[in-house]
Amino acid sequence: MMEALSTAVGMRLHWVQPKTFERWFELRAGDSLYATLRFEKAFGTLATAESADGIWTFKRVGFLNPRVTVRQVGAEANLAIYQPKLWGDGLLQFPDGRVFHWRSTNFWGTQWGFADWDGNSLFTLKPGVDKPKLSDLFKTQALVEVEPQGHALAELPLLVLLGWYLMILHQDDAAAATATTTVAVT
């Protein structure tokens, strides 16, 4: 049974990948499950995100004008749209005017998170786990550090799930670019 993310105040949250080559992720603190993210196909961008607060779908659409649509499961209308910018950051916009900024939280661009419109950080995703094991070597995992202002936000579950989705897409894009460059060089 999933627990509400609002009950995880002060806990060490981790995105874990239970099986190395499956695109299925769980947000956990110890033995407690808070959310899941599952890609529907091995190479597609459609994913289902679930928490105690709701179930959403995320999908990257568009080629010249890429964006990510956010919908409640079964809905035809977009709940929000994420529009990336040139350097990896971007804006998540809701129809009612609420906006959240996806941005790097460190100089090297290895840690990311959402901030509110005033620039207040809501949470940060940091690659890795507290106690790495050899079996984690080829898994995609991250620590989630929620800021105090993030815990009070009703959109926090959706933002944490979407943030992890964006991290996975970024990793997939980087791997594809590396493979393309390697093939082009040889």
Q: How much helix is in the residues?
A: 10-25%
Give the end-to-end Cα distance, rounded to a whole number of Å.
50 Å
Low-confidence stretches: none
Strand order of the biggest β-sheet: 10-9-8-7-6-5-4-3-2-1-12-11
Alpha carbon gyration radius:
16 Å
Number of helices: 2
Dominant shape: globular
- DSSP strand (E) fraction? 35-45%
Query: How does the helix and strand content classify structurally?
Result: alpha+beta
Could you characterize the architecture of this molecule?
The protein is of the alpha+beta class and 186 residues long. Helices cover 18% and strands 35% of the residues. It has helices spanning 148-151, 156-185; strands at residues 13-16, 24-29, 32-39, 47-51, 54-61, 67-72, 80-84, 90-93, 99-104, 112-115, 123-127, 142-146. A 12-stranded antiparallel beta sheet has the order 10-9-8-7-6-5-4-3-2-1-12-11. Strand 2 and strand 3 form a beta hairpin. The chain is globular. The mean pLDDT is 89.
